[in-house]
Specification:
heterodimer, A: 298 residues, mainly alpha, MetI-like fold, 2 domains, two-stranded antiparallel ribbon, 1% strand, B: 285 residues, 0% strand, globular, transmembrane (chain A), transport (chain A), MetI-like_sf (chain A)
């Protein structure tokens, strides 16, 4: 094997590699890396999407975003939505995985059912849940009325609208955290379980000391992927509330990018929000990786 | 009570959790299945039946008129064709590009290999949203708006699939690969006769994940498809909703069912393979 390390590449391999890799690389460079850089450039301009000319603004867009009341709301919505979606879907996914890891009759069918919403179109789920939450004849208000709770109007109150959108998102994406946790549970060392059982450890102790440490890689993986995914939600919000009610009650950063760029025709400002979001996500991910690496060393 | 404890301490210890388990399972089934049932039931109801308070659980009478309504409100078959076309082309392109890229990165020796691998992995970290505005401008300049090329080409690059397949390829047994090299197998023989036959489950899993992702694409086609000519189903569904003016839920729910159904069928038939791709790399550290 030693010989393969030092340049055993030859011209034939290099040419072939270029032929195999170039189409993919060109696509990634033109449609991922180029717009990444171009977006940062655009964020310093005032530009209406259709116009051939743009005006250089310097840091004005950034100053506007960091000082406006609107962005405070948007940032707040994004934080609430993301943290509730991440914590909610991970906690529920883990609970369901623990439940359906047990020998229960019919668990196979229930596993499929839990995973199914994850493959559905977010836009279709949004449309469906918009109907399900409709005041008066919607399913959720009706069920709440039946059990003696006066349903809130999910489309009139800012807090409830954000709650509704988050709940819908969790419903749709629960299957993902569930499947990852279930796979991790099934891949764990069963002999440790048995040892703990012989030691007569209680269920909770057993979970905390034997099962949970083994789920660490899955938890970390989910923390990053669910955070990135829920931070970028668009379809559910667009189909359910269009960012409303009252202007921006369910507007998250990604939705703000869309609205500023396509509705308000302020593509430069939209690019600014996108750049801020990109930096924020990068920092969050790097911090998470750093924390994880530190944890592993111990 | 004392006799119960004496006779079956085991049974008693397990009965309660078991009962709790089934109750929890029932609750889960209700929470996940009820909305799905509700969408289907609504799509089969007559118009007055949809707006009854309190709600009715069983459509009475059952009618298919909402499904006719979908076809009258929007060109459903065009949306379906667009979805199949966009998903089909993107899936084929991504699987082929993913396999070829991963093969080159795993089995060919060439200068800059690590750099190329890093470039592809780093693309995973770039959120789609930061690329919209600039890509939209580029696609407009090229005159690709409202065309399949405009929807497909910017989505065709493969970062995740390359990463997934490359991880799989380098984990293949070295002995077999080296034996093939000693036999002077050319790169294509190697790929086709040695690597792929050992990799089908991963390739299939990646294919299925790609189908699901591309079928459900929403934002990008929403921006690029202006009329109905190139819009896929999820975008078409929102057009149906707008056409119905937020009031006529029957056809909108029928459209929702029709949008969800194809992917649900694919999922039910092939879920095992799909789940394999999702969990690869997630569970082990």
């Amino acid at each position: 094997m030693g010989q393969t390390r030092t340049g055993r590449w030859n011209r034939r391999h290099t040419l072939l590699a270029a032929a195999l890799l170039l189409p993919n690389l060109v696509l990634l460079i033109v449609f991922t890396y180029r717009p990444l850089i171009d977006n940062i450039r655009l964020s310093f301009f005032q530009w209406n999407l259709g116009s051939p000319t743009s005006t250089f603004l310097g840091w004005d867009n950034y100053v506007e975003w960091f000082t406006s009341d609107d962005s405070r709301t948007v940032l707040w919505n994004t934080l609430i939505f993301t943290s509730v979606a991440v914590i909610g879907s991970m906690a529920l996914g883990l609970s369901l995985a623990l439940l359906l890891d047990q020998k229960l009759f019919g668990r196979g069918a229930v596993r499929s059912l839990v995973f199914a919403p994850f493959v559905l179109s977010g836009a279709a789920v949004g449309v469906a849940f918009q109907f399900i939450f409709t005041p008066t004849f919607g399913l959720v208000p009706d069920l709440l009325t039946t059990i003696g709770i006066t349903p809130p109007n999910f489309y009139q109150s800012s807090g409830w609208a954000l709650f509704m959108v988050t709940l819908t998102y969790i419903w749709k994406n629960l299957g993902y955290t569930f499947v990852i946790y279930l796979a991790a549970l099934q891949g764990r060392r069963r002999d440790l379980d048995e040892a703990a059982e012989i030691d007569a450890a209680s269920g909770w102790t057993r979970f905390r000391q034997v099962v949970w440490p083994q789920l660490r890689p899955a938890t970390f993986f989910l923390l990053i992927t669910v955070l990135l995914n829920s931070f970028q939600v668009f379809d559910v919000i667009h189909t359910m509330t269009r960012g409303g009610p009252y202007g921006n009650a369910t507007t998250t950063m990604v939705y703000q990018i869309y609205q500023e760029t396509y509705t308000n025709r302020r593509a430069g400002y939209g690019a600014t929000v996108a750049s801020i979001m990109f930096v924020a996500l990068l920092v969050v991910t790097l911090v998470q990786v750093w924390v994880m690496e530190r944890g592993r060393e111990k | 009570m004392s006799t119960y404890a004496e006779v079956a301490p085991h049974e008693r210890r397990h009965l309660l959790p078991l009962l709790g388990g089934y109750l929890a399972m029932l609750l889960v089934v209700l929470v996940i299945a009820l909305p799905l049932y509700w969408i289907v039931a609504t799509s089969l109801k007559e118009r007055p039946d949809i707006y009854t308070v309190p709600v009715t659980w069983v459509p009475n009478p059952v009618t298919l008129e909402n499904y006719d309504g979908v076809r009258q409100g929007v060109p459903f078959l065009t949306f379906l064709r667009n979805s199949v076309l966009i998903t089909g082309v993107l899936t084929i392109v991504q699987v082929v590009l993913g396999v070829l890229s991963a093969f080159a990165l795993s089995f060919l020796r060439f200068p800059g290999r690590t750099l190329v691998l890093l470039l592809i992995i780093a693309a995973l970290m770039v959120p789609n949203q930061i690329t919209w505005i600039s890509n939209y401008a580029l696609v407009s300049q090229l005159g690709w708006r409202n065309s399949f090329i405009g929807i497909i080409v910017p989505l065709a690059g493969v970062a995740f699939g390359t990463f997934l397949l490359r991880n799989h390829f380098v984990s293949l047994p070295k002995e077999i690969v080296e034996a093939a090299e000693m036999d002077h197998a050319g790169p294509f023989t190697m790929l086709w006769r040695v690597v792929l036959p050992m990799s089908w489950p991963t390739v299939i899993a990646f294919t299925l994940i790609t189908i699901v992702n591309e079928w459900n694409q929403y934002l990008w086609p929403l921006l690029i498809a202006e009329g109905s000519d190139t819009a896929p189903l999820p975008v078409g569904l929102t057009q149906l909703q707008d056409a119905e003016g937020f009031t006529n839920w029957g056809p909108v729910m029928a459209g929702t069912v029709l949008t969800m159904l194809p992917i649900l069928i694919v999922f039910l038939l092939l879920q095992r393979h799909m789940i394999k791709g999702l969990t690869a790399g997630a569970v082990k550290g």
